[in-house]
């Protein structure tokens, strides 16, 4: 007998038919004598719809506390409906809201972190042989106020339960059948991966692969919870996410693109020690995250520094630098939004020279100009013109996987 934790995303429970489909998947494992704890997200676009309702009332943004009261309602609907479906199939089941399942979080409304899970209630229900359906993405803080874990937080709820209950399997069901070498909707020859490491998955998630929520992968790595990403609609093996995987001859695990990037260039800075410090310190103090940095030689003892930020942060970054104009002494700043970042990820590149040149060759063969490059142990990213993003994704992918 094993303990299964299964998480179903919003699209997997979007309507009555899908709810019954999920109920059947759950019951199948329960019937074999296993314990099953299920985490569900809100149905379909419920969370987005609730956010839209809040905007109707207060376009400037309601308080985060009240947003949490509203958003937790989405998952309350889906857990009860799923429990009703399992009841109808004739199996013992109970639905629990986050707080009932013991999720204690900090008080950072809308982006709370789980502090601990009091597993007593869940253990009691399992002792009574009940299937447990838990509302994902939510908890309660020390003031007994409802909290949510940030968008896509149900993955994290599932991993947290798997860790706290020492589950044998943690299965994340979605509407795709696993993690791919690239976005299968954009790249024709994208292949499903059997396995991927936590670190690779984290890079691919931050780079916009969007199969698993980032925090959930971080938590899985921390507690060594093996994850299985699989389809709720087709019965076939998915992708396993774990610490170490077989490397064989695979150089890279995937190619991702990220359109949420802007490049800011500060032109004509004095070429003195401390300038870079002043510039990036100003940005850090305003909590602006900088990704890639490029410094180049300017004219007459000046230098230019360009860096990338999330597109949503670009205005803030421009304003911040402008407000330091006197202190920094530069000629001008400019911001370019029509750029994209394309990255290759793979633990194998550490031990294989030539991976970078292979990527650059694919871009050169297609006359795609590289504006910026950055590398880490398991990742190489380039900034290019956004109009070539999809093309770059495909040509780089096919160079490695074709
Ligand atoms: N329903 C929440 C959201 O849409 C949580 C989740 O889906 O994991 O962000
Ligand atoms: Mg959702």
Task: Give the topology.
Elements lengths: L2 E6 L7 H16 L3 E6 L5 H12 L6 H26 L3 E4 L6 E3 L8 E4 L2 H8 L3 E5 L2 E3 L5 E3 L5 H11 L4 E6 L20 E3 H12 L4 H10 L3 E5 L7 E4 L11 E5 L3 E9 L4 H11 L7 E5 L4 E8 L4 H10 L1 H4 L3 E5 L2 E7 L9 H11 L6 E5 L2 E7 L3 H13 L1
Parallel strand pairs: 1-2, 1-9, 2-6, 3-6, 9-11, 10-12
Antiparallel strand pairs: 4-5, 7-8, 11-12, 13-18, 14-16, 14-17, 15-16, 18-20, 19-20
Helix pairs in contact: 1-3, 2-3, 5-7, 6-7, 11-12
The structure holds aspartic acid (ASP) and magnesium ion.
What key attributes describe this structure?
402 residues, alpha/beta, four-stranded antiparallel sheet, binds magnesium ion
Q: Which regions have little confidence, pLDDT < 50, spanning 5+ residues?
A: none
Biggest β-sheet description: 8 strands, mixed
CATH superfamily of the domain at 3-174: Acetylglutamate kinase-like
Based on the coordinates given, report the CATH architecture of the domain at 3-174: 3-Layer(aba) Sandwich
Q: Record the strand order, biggest sheet.
A: 3-6-2-1-9-11-12-10
Rg over CA atoms: 24 Å
Shape: globular
Mean pLDDT: 94
Distance between the termini: 42 Å
* Name of the top-level CATH class of the domain at 3-174: Alpha Beta
Named CATH topology of the domain at 3-174: Carbamate kinase
Individual helix count: 12
What is the number of strand segments?
20
**Category by helix and strand content:** alpha/beta
Hetero ligands: aspartic acid, magnesium ion
> How much helix, percentage-wise, in residues?
25-40%
Beta-strand percent range: 25-35%
